């Protein structure tokens, strides 16, 4: 549980610790230890946490804030988010004392060229995610050598076997919550008295963009309300490597 990442003097890609070395060292580490190791591996100015400020986001942001509240946080403001999500972002920034939250929007040129009528979410949701999430994130991550996200293995599908550290092309990708359980997430909420996403009380267990998010019924998978009725289960930012 006390594994730490090797210290490196440079943050160039070639000088970063190997993915296998880090994943092996951090396999059984706590989320806080993994975030601390990420800081040691690449440095605060080269590390970002990507958050949707969704229904479970407060837990990872709380752990990060306890390690270093000045780690940059990237928030993808797609133009289709619930007003409740935008309000929740502001609530968590104030509650947790986050010092560097960057709200990133899609390129206006891409929107006017590919989605002038705002109907792309219905006709081609993969393309909609690409211009509203994948491309903006790739742009936002350019200055960074490593990034942190909140995926968990218990979420299933493509997430069932995620490692703690993985290769993301030009940078390291840290999954500090890979090993956590639903019960452990709930314990963080309760122990830290974290505010809940406003839509949780209305039956939303996973919240993304408004047109592609629906409530889930009891017994359904928590992400069943995302892209309901389609084979799609991911927006794309976790299924392709960033350059």
Number of strands: 6
Judging from the principal axes of the Cα atoms, what is the shape?
globular
Specify the biggest β-sheet.
6 strands, mixed
Instruction: Provide a count of the helices.
Output: 8
Helix content percent band: 25-40%
Contiguous runs where pLDDT drops below 50 for at least 5 residues: 1-13
How far do the termini sit from each other?
A: 32 Å
Question: What would you say about this model in short?
Answer:
The chain has helices at 19-26, 31-42, 57-67, 83-96, 108-114, 120-123, 125-140, 182-192; strands spanning 47-50, 73-76, 101-104, 146-148, 165-167, 172-174. It has 243 residues and is an alpha/beta fold.
Your description of this structure?
This is Adenosine 5'-phosphosulfate reductase. The active site is at 235 (nucleophile). It catalyses: [thioredoxin]-disulfide + sulfite + AMP + 2 H(+) = adenosine 5'-phosphosulfate + [thioredoxin]-dithiol. This protein is an alpha/beta fold. It has helices at residues 19-26, 31-42, 57-67, 83-96, 108-114, 120-123, 125-140, 182-192, and strands at 47-50, 73-76, 101-104, 146-148, 165-167, 172-174. It has a 6-stranded mixed β-sheet. Strand 1, helix 3 and strand 2 form a beta-alpha-beta unit. The longest helix is centred in the middle third of the chain and has 16 residues, at 125-140. The protein is globular, with a radius of gyration of 17 Å. The model is unreliable at 1-13 (pLDDT under 50).
């Amino acid at each position: 549980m006390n594994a730490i990442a090797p210290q490196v003097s440079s943050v160039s890609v070639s000088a970063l610790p190997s993915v296998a070395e880090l994943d092996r060292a951090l396999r059984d580490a706590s989320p806080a230890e993994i975030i601390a190791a990420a800081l040691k591996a690449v440095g605060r100015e080269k590390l970002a946490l990507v958050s949707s400020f969704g229904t479970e986001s407060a837990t990872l942001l709380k752990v990060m804030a306890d390690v270093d509240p000045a780690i940059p946080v990237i928030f993808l403001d797609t133009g289709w988010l619930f007003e409740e999500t935008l309000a929740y972002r502001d609530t968590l920034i104030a509650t947790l004392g986050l010092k560097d939250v960057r709200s990133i929007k899609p390129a206006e040129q891409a929107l006017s060229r590919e989605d002038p009528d705002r109907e792309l979410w219905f006709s081609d949701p993969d393309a909609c995610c690409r211009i509203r999430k994948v491309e903006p994130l790739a742009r936002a991550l350019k200055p960074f050598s490593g990034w942190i996200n909140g995926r968990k293995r218990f979420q299933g599908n493509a997430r069932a076997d995620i490692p703690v550290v993985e290769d993301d092309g030009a940078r390291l990708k840290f999954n500090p919550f890979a090993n956590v359980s639903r019960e452990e997430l709930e314990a963080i909420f309760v122990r830290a008295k974290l505010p809940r996403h406003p839509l949780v009380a209305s039956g939303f267990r996973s919240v993304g963009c408004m047109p592609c998010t629906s409530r889930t019924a009891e017994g359904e998978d928590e992400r069943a309300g995302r892209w309901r009725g389609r084979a799609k289960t991911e927006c794309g930012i976790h299924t392709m490597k960033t350059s």
